């Protein structure tokens, strides 16, 4: 039973394309997140949703749009992909206060060519 | 603003040697601190939470509010400990988890 699952695991696409990454959690958490890990392994939060409501929106280009159809799902849609978008994107979930830590998905390695 | 500093980008030790991965934080309130580990090309896994004061895989970490530090320690490193270690802080009204830049630990045989 995978707690936080992301699809696809790998994504190779051309510049200018639009792509989506899906995330689902079966832990009963009410908060979900998207993090970006760049080539230097830095982890930066992008978005957070609590019960389908956007609560964190860091400085991210508006080509990135998260969508949460319900509290168990948080998808990330990226328009007009650029070379600099190449990274590993991690989805995570937690209870609202996060005191038990976050549970991460296995990541989606996005390569823009 | 909350900030986490891991001063060492790389740390290399020999098997059986003690290891300490440093973490300092900056936060005006009462933070919750964590250590996460990422083995090669795998997901991040929670290693320790400061509130639980537990020991996982021989690792411990003590929150020192005076020095604003949460260093991770293990008395005898094993080769399987080789991984990227991230210190993280949760705080603020939105409980955002902010990560340090990570320390890549290599344990040599």
Fold blueprint:
The complex is a heterodimer of chains A (113) and B (109).
Chain A: E1 4-7, E2 10-13, E3 19-25, E4 31-37, E5 43-50, E6 53-57, E7 64-70, E8 73-78, E9 87-94, E10 103-104, E11 108-112
Parallel strand pairs in A: 2-11
Antiparallel strand pairs in A: 1-3, 3-8, 4-5, 4-9, 5-6, 7-8, 9-10, 9-11
Chain B: E1 3-5, E2 10-14, E3 19-21, E4 24-26, E5 32-38, E6 44-49, E7 60-61, E8 72-74, E9 83-91, E10 96-99, E11 103-108
Parallel strand pairs in B: 2-11
Antiparallel strand pairs in B: 1-4, 3-8, 5-6, 5-9, 7-8, 9-10, 9-11
Keywords:
heterodimer, A: 113 residues, 7-stranded mixed beta sheet, 4-stranded antiparallel beta sheet, 11 strands, 0% helix, B: 109 residues, mainly beta, 3-stranded antiparallel beta sheet
Could you explain the architecture of this structure?
The complex is a heterodimer of chains A (113) and B (109). Chain A is mostly beta strands and 113 residues long. Chain A has no helices and eleven strands. In chain A, the strands form two sheets. In chain A, strands 2, 4, 5, 6, 9, 10 and 11 form a seven-stranded mixed beta sheet that branches. A four-stranded antiparallel beta sheet of chain A has the order 1-3-8-7, with no helix packed on it. In chain A, a hairpin with an 8-residue loop joins β9 and β10. The relative contact order of chain A is 0.33. With 109 residues, chain B is an all-beta fold. Chain B is built from no helices and eleven strands. In chain B, the strands form three sheets. In chain B, strands 2, 5, 6, 9, 10 and 11 form a six-stranded mixed beta sheet that branches. A three-stranded antiparallel beta sheet of chain B has the order 3-8-7, with no helix packed on it. In chain B, a hairpin with a 5-residue loop joins β5 and β6. Chain B starts with a strand and ends with a strand. At the A-B interface, β5, β9 and β10 of A face β5, β6, β9 and β10 of B.
């Amino acid at each position: 039973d995978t707690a936080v699952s992301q699809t696809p695991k790998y994504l190779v696409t051309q510049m200018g394309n639009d792509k989506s990454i899906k995330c689902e959690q079966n832990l009963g958490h009410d908060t979900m997140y998207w993090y970006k890990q760049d080539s230097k392994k830095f982890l930066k939060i992008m978005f957070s949703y609590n019960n389908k409501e956007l609560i964190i929106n860091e400085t991210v280009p508006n080509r990135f749009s998260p969508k949460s159809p319900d509290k168990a799902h948080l998808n990330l849609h990226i328009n007009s992909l650029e070379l600099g978008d190449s990274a590993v994107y991690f989805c995570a979930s937690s209870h609202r206060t996060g005191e038990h830590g976050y549970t991460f998905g296995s990541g989606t390695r996005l390569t823009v060519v | 603003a909350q900030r986490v500093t891991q001063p060492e980008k790389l740390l290399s030790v020999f098997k059986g040697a003690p290891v300490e991965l440093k973490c300092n934080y900056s936060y005006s309130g009462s933070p919750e601190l964590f250590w996460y580990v990422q083995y090669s090309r795998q997901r991040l896994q929670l290693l320790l939470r400061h509130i639980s004061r537990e020991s996982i895989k021989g690792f411990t970490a003590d929150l020192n509010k005076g020095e604003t530090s949460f260093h991770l320690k293990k008395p005898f490193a094993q080769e399987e400990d080789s991984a990227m270690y991230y210190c993280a802080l949760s705080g603020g009204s939105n409980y955002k988890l902010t990560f340090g830049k990570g320390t890549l630990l290599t344990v040599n045989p």
